[in-house]
Amino acid sequence: MDVSIDAITNNIQLALAPVFLLTAVATLINAISGRLARSVDRMRAIRHSINLGEVKDTAILRHMNKEADEAQIRGRLCTAAIFFDVLSGVFISLTVLELFFFQAGAVRSLQTSYVIWTFVLGLIFFMTSLSIVLAEVVYAYRSAGWNTPKKTNS
């Protein structure tokens, strides 16, 4: 095992390079959590108005029920994106640990295929999360209340 300062510095740099990807994972989780919170709050507000009987117009009531259902679907999409983002973080963290132990010489039997697989799986899960976020954003735009019915005077 090489214990020179250059070797130690190189080992630390190699093991910490994927940590920058973990920053992106954490940032995405934060952004998705905000979208999830807004979606859940909107769904609760709509359901609360419906349950209080504040809305009498059937067209508006139908529209509000549809909007609440769409908010629920958006919430499910956000939850799925967070799930895959967390999986990505776990696999990238495993990569960091594997690289550190491998470079430090603590584990001699570690095969490079483990490092490759954990890193690749981390990236695949991250891309899956990004794809779900894109689907949620497109769905949110398409389900926005552009055609909200006007209240009729009855």
Question: What does this molecule look like?
Answer:
The protein is mostly helical and 154 residues long. It contains 4 helices and no strands. The radius of gyration is 24 Å and the shape is rod-shaped. The mean pLDDT is 85.
Biggest sheet character: none
Oligomeric organization of the protein chains: single chain
Topology order in helix (H) and strand (E) letters: HHHH
**Strand fraction:** under 5%
Specify the overall morphology. Answer: rod-shaped
Number of helices: 4
The helix content, as a percent range, equals over 70%
* Poorly predicted runs: none
Number of strands: 0
Overall SS class: mainly alpha
Rounded average pLDDT: 85
User: Cα distance, first to last residue?
Assistant: 85 Å
**CA radius of gyration:** 24 Å
Secondary-structure map:
Elements: H1 5-16, H2 19-52, H3 58-104, H4 112-142
Helix pairs in contact: 1-3, 2-3, 3-4
Short structural summary:
Helices cover 81% and strands 0% of the residues.
Kindly list the characteristics that best describe this protein.
single chain, about 150 residues, mainly alpha, about 80% helix, about 0% strand, rod-shaped
